[in-house]
Amino acid sequence: MSVSLKLRPNAKARVLQGHPWVFVNEVxxxxxxxxxxxxxxxxxRAGRLLGTGIYNSKSQIVWRRLSRDRVALDxxxxxxxxxxxxxxxxxxxxxxxxxxxxxxxxxxxxxGLVVDQFGDTLVVQVQTLAMEKRxxxxxxxxxxxxxxxxxxxxxxxxxxxxxxxxxxxRTRSGRTWEPRWTMIDGFDYWLNLLGGxxxxxxxxxxxxxxxxxxxxxxxxxxDAFCNQGSFALHCARAGAARVLGLDSAFEAIGQAxxxxxxxxxxVEFESANVFDWFTAQRETVPAWDLIILDPPPFAKSKSxxxxxxxxxxxxxxxxxxxxxxxxxLATYACSHHMQDAELRGVLADAxxxxxxxxxxxxxxxxxxxxxxxxxxPESEYLRxxxxxxx
Length: 390
Description:
Distance between the termini: 67 Å
Strand content: 25-35%
Number of helices: 11
CATH topology of the largest domain: Rossmann fold
Number of domains: 3
CATH class of the largest domain: Alpha Beta
Number of strands: 19
Largest sheet: 7 strands, mixed
């Protein structure tokens, strides 16, 4: 006999509309802990089936839908979901690449599983107890379906703590994975997939590197929050007159310098707090024609959104003031708590305070290999604008 979780009426409409999460305060009662990491059905008070999903009483998100129908999280389900995820990346006219996100959690029917491909190496993040219990099987299936030479389990995300899971980093083979030079979009990067931010490289911004670089020729370019320097490298090769990259992480700056030298491009890099750096420069004549703002998420929770909006506004205000007339601002936000209307409002407030006339040149979004589930706003997290600041 199947195990069922009873949903309160206040959450029924949202789940029926397709949202895959149920929170701890939306159920009539929790199930015993013996069901943690297992598959249970979700039903309304009348007993009608709302879907099958994974359960964890230790998490604020106690239930995550797998399917609207009855399913088992077994080898057959995992194989089918992984095959469909891979097919999504190779269909729809997308150009084939060996550097992409292969699995994006709920968007690919695999809640809490993220897989990034770096050539013949896969970097896997397991963020739910149910997927953790099936980690060996997932590794075996990914190897079979992709031919990967190695899988790195980067299970060091803070999200694991919310599921009651320990942090760990390991390889499937048990062998050490050595950092190495890897060519992505025409540039060599020194990648440490065991320890870099996220899964080792920001695959979600690859299209934006080229989109911004086409404005760089002859311009003075500031790449704020530069990390490994991808925007800076692309702009330098595109013919920028000068490129400066800033990041507060000393290790990232060291790696960015190494990348620039390896690729034979001239870029200056400085370790600096970007807010403080702009403050120190505010009395100088605008010295930049193109500024890139790609900060880490300021709104890591819904309760942090108000302060985050102030931070984004202040950051964009300082950048607009530092741009010469007719300059380009490429600005991004990577938090699902911040919707497009809020980002647009932040930019409008910053333009008003800067007393600058600002036009939208391009609207930016996460790429198709990070698919957005339209019934789940949380699956959409990266958005941005390319602006002309007059």
